[in-house]
């Protein structure tokens, strides 16, 4: 194997409503799976409140640390929508009316409807490029390695789908899952030995509890299809040897 | 109003399966709502991978920054379950067999079943106190201000419920929601004015899209019931004035 560049990413979920428990985040899993598919490795996600200092500091921390950053939430017209201004502040650039977004809004809103609050949504950090919103009106934007998207899942998904093929990822991560009804404690030793022989694979063990029964999903992930297939065969053999009934998913 | 101490918390969701998009986290919203109910303010959440250095550094960062830290995931018997050892390392204490957990395991497992992998789950950072697991076998634990819990939602919920009343929170955060079918862009100006008059309340505006219709939920949160009621009346009046039909939820 030759060393290959791993392209990394961070997701920032911005919004008090997630931290209060009012809203269950529905965006992370979608972005995570999408990044996986284009060979970008999601290294962390953070949920942070609508607090300017926290947003600015966190954006600056993660954009230096990872190849890509994706934010969700806080780009609407109300007083608590401060993501866009905060990203401008993080990049040290003015927050200005984006000519293209302005044109879009002039075409979409009737005269008199384009009030001050809505016009805020046509502002971006200077130098940003727009991300198309195929569902509603306000666009997202990209500046540097930071992609700023909406919080409403249907809108976020439309935005993410429109940019994900522009990301420069590495080889996509492939995965295989073997499920069985053996408890983790019985598989652990043998599985650890397989992991030690396949340091290039990431082998995870995920217990589950369904219909009154505990079971375990064994997930193998890697970029090399042959190594992945070989590791999976070993896991299947281990489960059989321990008296389990391996199911490939 | 007198200044009151706000008790803060951070949640660490530990697990590659969340970052790969394989699993949708189901724990954050539960913990968030529970903390809210006992007057603890959740200030951030992070999803981090099963990587020792990252876990150790993150635990040390957040335990210094917040009053309480809650972790989920990574306390099973397999090679990828490294949370417990990492927390010991973060606190700079040995990772040792916990006598009480050992006793529990000796009573629960038949002779021969308590193998090395399972015995790992009876280890904790030295000085930790156990968190009861009402669903399966392996306990969680608390050390200092850090609470270490399982990742399986049913188990995590049982653990969290068993410790949440021991937390020393402030006055609980109360909330009121007013829903309407006005777009955010119409409400924004008046809502921002109400927020400016009620700096002690946290007023959020959350657009939604249901059955082909956009609408907005206006959520007011605060610790003082009278101020909250007064602010809510102003929001209801604003929606009416703008021709909307406010629904108190």
Question: How would you characterize this protein structure?
Answer:
2 copies of one chain form a homodimer. The first copy, chain A, is an alpha/beta fold. The first copy, chain A, has 2 domains: about 5-165, MoaB/Mog-like domain (Molybdenum Cofactor Biosythetic Enzyme, Chain A); about 175-249, Alpha-Beta Plaits (2-Layer Sandwich), CATH 3.30.70.2860. Chain A is about 40% helix and about 25% strand. In chain A, the strands form 3 sheets. In chain A, strands 2-1-3-8-7-6 form a 6-stranded mixed sheet, sandwiched between helices. A 4-stranded antiparallel sheet of chain A has the order 10-11-9-12. In chain A, helix 3 crosses helix 4 (about 85-90) and helix 8 (about 185-195) runs antiparallel to helix 9. The longest helix of chain A has 17 residues, at about 225-240. The radius of gyration of chain A is 22 Å and the shape is elongated. The mean pLDDT of chain A is about 95. Chains A and B meet through helix 1, helix 2, strand 2, helix 6 and helix 8 of A and helix 1, helix 2, strand 2, helix 6 and helix 8 of B. Strand 2 of chain A pairs antiparallel with strand 2 (about 40-50) of chain B, so a sheet runs across the interface.
Main features:
homodimer; Molybdenum Cofactor Biosythetic Enzyme, Chain A; six-stranded mixed sheet; 9 helices; 27% strand
Continuous helix count of chain A: 9
Strand order, main sheet of chain A: write it out.
2-1-3-8-7-6
Q: Oligomer, anyone?
A: homodimer
Q: Which residues of chain A form runs of ≥5 with pLDDT under 50?
A: none
